[in-house]
Design goal:
Largest interface: A-B, 26 and 21 residues
Shape of chain A: globular
Number of domains of chain B: 2
Radius of gyration of chain A: 18 Å
Distance between the termini of chain A: 55 Å
Helix content of chain A: 25-40%
Largest sheet of chain B: 4 strands, antiparallel
Order of helices and strands of chain B: HHEHEHEHEHHHH
Helix content of chain B: over 70%
Strand order of the largest sheet of chain A: 6-7-8-3-9-10
Strand order of the largest sheet of chain B: 2-3-1-4
Strand content of chain B: 5-15%
Number of strands of chain B: 4
Number of helices of chain A: 8
Distance between the termini of chain B: 23 Å
Oligomer: heterodimer
């Protein structure tokens, strides 16, 4: 028990000093080809809203996979919520991910289940008591604007609605960090803006939000911190920056 | 694990079968086909073995002892056994592993049997004395005819034993049939296993493509390996049990029908061939098939899920 408390304090201290996400000179080389990430150093503080932008092949997806602990770095260190991801054992990964909300471009919903079941599933994983699940799911669905749709099958929903379900699922366990990988990639401009507005509200409630995108219009309009990547390195990192397409 | 989680897992295991109807149907059909072939083969082999065993039970060797009426000069006085020694030899024979039964035949019984076989009921006329006097013998029945040679050699090494009657051809034929059944069984089991593995691995491959996205999503949102695996494993076991129950039902009906047909149409055949009853066949086949079905379902689902757990 004392040991756990000690580790928790160490993690907290690390977050205070280095940020809730901290990458130190990270390289990722796949078995075939040149490095996907080549010496990345990046620190994201608690409660920040950060855009990670860049063209295809710039290393954005690899970066997200490292943060999710889907991949491990070839060299350098990746710290998320004070956890050194290289030292995280396979059996510790699920618990780590429960503090990490994640949203994908293709929504990744369980298409054979309804909206309620998709969101409740995230709570069942963390063994939330059934009566709490029955209370929490309608509340979070109301937050993302899907109050009346909890019985609908996900295939019957529009792209924007499906992304809201994914957001509700990512948020229901109150994660410290929300990672959004191209969350507007499959949406029309109206829905894209609604999703971004929701992400901003989530950030305002204290959740760290990291959005990987190449939607220049949104990035430039929101005036948040923008980290630009190119060929596996960070080429700019500016608060209130802009996404400049060099092509 | 909380009870609510366990109940959820069980519910999902059942629900998965209906969610993936076509995959479930393909899996059940594959397992059923394999276990049907296995069951059919088992029923045939079990009957063959039973017939051979029945034939083996009738194979015996007869042991004769030296006696005072024997004019052979090769034996010495102390090679003629006393009643106690004959009894002792009988016990020694009974103690051997290859022996299933030993019957003592006195000289009077031997003459009575011989005479009734060859002269009919009035055999005693013309023979005031027993011509087989002193011909005590043991009729030894074997549990394993392939060991007949070893038994005969051992019997001949006993000084009091004069002669051992046995049929080398019968024993060799039965041993040969036994060996043939063993080889054919092994060959067919290997072929069936290969076919089963091929069919099941193909069905599993379909399952993988259906399930990979689902498993990935579960892992991304923090499900433990157990939480992901448990409903799939339960689903696999249920599919396996269903896949075993269908051929069992089919074979039960077919076997009964075939047995009745043979008994009615080929009465002569059923007089000397003892076919196993459906209960005798299913006493072994049912538990083995159900266990195989469960095993196939369990292994199939485990291998399907495992490939996607490392996300």
């Amino acid at each position: 028990m004392a040991n756990r408390e000690l580790q928790r304090r160490k993690r907290e201290q690390l977050i205070e000093e280095k940020g809730i996400i901290f990458l130190d000179n990270v390289r990722k080389v796949y078995s075939t080809g040149s490095p996907a990430l080549n010496g990345i150093t990046l620190s994201i503080g608690r409660g920040e809203f950060v855009f990670i932008v860049g063209d295809s092949g710039s290393g954005k997806s690899t970066l997200i996979k490292l943060l999710l602990r889907e991949l491990t770095a070839t060299s350098g260190s990746v710290y998320v919520m004070g956890n050194d991801l290289a030292k995280l054992k396979h059996r510790q990964v699920p618990k780590f991910r429960r503090n990490l909300g994640v949203v994908f471009q293709d929504f990744r919903l369980l298409n054979d289940r309804n909206v309620y079941e998709n969101v409740a599933f995230a709570q069942r994983i963390v063994e939330t008591p059934p009566n709490e699940i029955r209370r929490n799911v309608p509340a979070i669905l109301a937050t993302v604007g899907l109050a009346g749709k909890y019985k609908a099958k996900t295939r019957q929903l529009s792209g924007g609605e499906q992304q809201r379900v994914a957001l509700a699922r990512a948020l229901i366990n109150k994660p410290s960090i929300l990672l959004a990988d191209e969350p507007t990639g499959n949406l029309d401009p109206k829905n894209s803006w609604e999703i971004m507005k929701l992400l901003e509200e989530i950030n305002e409630s204290g959740t760290t939000v990291v959005v990987v995108t190449h939607n220049r219009e949104i990035v430039n309009a929101m005036h948040k911190r923008v980290v630009t990547m190119k060929k596996g390195v960070i080429v700019s990192d500016e608060e209130g920056g802009e996404y400049i397409d060099e092509d | 694990m909380k009870i609510s989680t366990l109940l959820y897992t069980i519910k999902q295991g059942f629900a998965n079968i209906f969610r993936n109807k076509w995959y479930s149907l393909a899996s059940v059909a594959t397992i059923s086909a394999c276990l049907f072939l296995f069951g059919l083969f088992y029923a045939i082999v079990a009957n063959f073995q039973s017939i051979v065993m029945k034939a083996e039970e009738g194979v015996s060797v007869t042991v004769f002892f030296h006696n005072e009426y024997d004019k052979c000069e090769t034996h010495t006085e102390n090679q003629i056994p006393t009643d106690t020694r004959i009894e002792e030899i009988g016990q020694m024979i009974s103690a051997r592993v290859e022996v299933s039964d030993v019957i003592y035949i006195s000289d009077d019984e031997a003459w009575a049997n011989f005479a009734s076989d060859y002269y009919g009921e009035n055999y005693a006329e013309g023979f005031p004395e027993n011509p087989l006097a002193g011909e005590y013998s043991y009729e030894v029945y074997l549990s394993d005819v392939s060991m007949q040679d070893a038994l005969v050699n051992w019997l001949l090494s006993i000084p009091e034993v004069r002669k051992v009657n046995f049929s080398e051809v019968t024993a060799d034929t039965l041993s040969g049939v036994n060996l043939l059944i063993a080889y054919v069984s092994l060959g067919i089991i290997v072929i069936l296993l290969a076919v089963s593995i091929f069919l099941i691995s193909n069905t599993v491959a379909i399952g993988i493509s259906v399930r990979s996205a689902e498993i990935n999503i579960m892992k991304y949102i923090g499900a433990t390996d157990f939480f992901v695996r448990a409903p799939f494993v339960l689903e696999g076991i249920l599919i396996g049990l269903l896949g075993a129950a269908i051929p069992l039902g089919l074979i039960y009906s077919l076997y009964n029908y075939a047995l009745n047909y043979i008994v009615e149409r080929f009465e002569i055949l059923s007089n000397f061939l003892n076919f196993l009853t459906v209960d005798q066949v299913f006493g072994v086949l049912a538990p083995v098939s159900l266990a195989m079905g469960m095993g196939i379902g369990f292994l199939g689902s485990i291998s399907t899920v495992r490939k996607h757990l490392h996300v």
